[in-house]
Amino acid sequence: MRYMVSPQKTKASTNLLPGMERSASNNVWLRLMGIPAVAVMLVFLSNDLSPENVYSKIIKYIIYVALYWEIHRVIFIYVQNRYPYLQDTRKRVYIQIIVFALVILVVSFFLALINPYFPSGGAGSQDTFLMEYQSFVVKSLLLLGLITVIYECIYFFGLYEKSMLEAERLKKENLMSQFELLKNQISPHFLFNSLNVLMTLVPENPDLSVMHIQKLSNVYRYVLSQHEKNVINLTTELQFLKDYIFLYQMRFGENLQIKYNLPDQWDHIQVIPLTLQMLVENALKHNIVSKRKPLTITISTIAGFIMVTNNLQRKTSGVESTNIGLQNIMNRYMLLTSKLVEVHVTKTHFSVMLPLIFDHDNL
């Protein structure tokens, strides 16, 4: 059985514009207030303003502004949803400039063509048409520039709001992770088991007992120094994991087997700190580890993921799974990458696949 586990996503975490669909693109009040305001401003900036034609000019400019506003809104939404990320800004701007230039030329032509039919319009001669066409092109440039500024400001404010919300969520997830780590690692059981092993080693093998103390010290030093980071180099994380696993192998011996199937070079690969440890801890916590049923944990990379797999031999009693640790891992990855954590369960194996984070990814 294969399934993906994903926390419920908010609008801020989708590929659509953060906040745009609810604040600018579909905000009726923004258009109801903005279109008349811009139209009145254009009327008062026009050269020909007299009491006889002021109302007809206002009506004409409201239609004019509404037409451009709606055309701009549709194009803006489409382009932004097609290229929503900051690294796409240059491509997005180039496309908008080309499309808006074509829209200005075409729409200005039809506006100049129908302008004589308005009470305040010109006589309709060829010279008047060309002047009106030139005037509409200039006004269209100014109008589209103003509307673009409004939408871009709301768009980037949405990005800022999204980044602040995700920073708060990530901070909360890190605190939850720290709490889980404190429960799992700095618990009396963990210390008791580690010290118990050390007590048996000291009289029999002093050198190995010194190594045991060093590994235990490395584990706690790593937890205290790295738990606040969002991502960490995979090499550093694996070194910590090997120290952590060493402590358990001193306890279980050959009953716990660890296999690594990793590339030779992984300096450019990053992971969220302590996630691999939490998966190994869960495997040890929920499965039998004995001479008759040895536990094998395999750590490998596959298609942009790092996978932690163990043979499934669940404990029949004494341990209930709350899935808090796994849910915490999924939430943290959701904040840092668009890929989801995948869980694969068969009758014989349990696997969790964590998305790899590369140096060039935007975090």
TrEMBL record:
The chain crosses the membrane at residues 28-46, 58-81, 93-118, 138-160. GO terms for molecular function: phosphorelay sensor kinase activity. GO terms for cellular component: membrane. Keywords: Membrane, Transmembrane, Transmembrane helix. This is Signal transduction histidine kinase internal region domain-containing protein. It holds the Pfam family His_kinase. Residues 178-256 form the Signal transduction histidine kinase internal region domain.
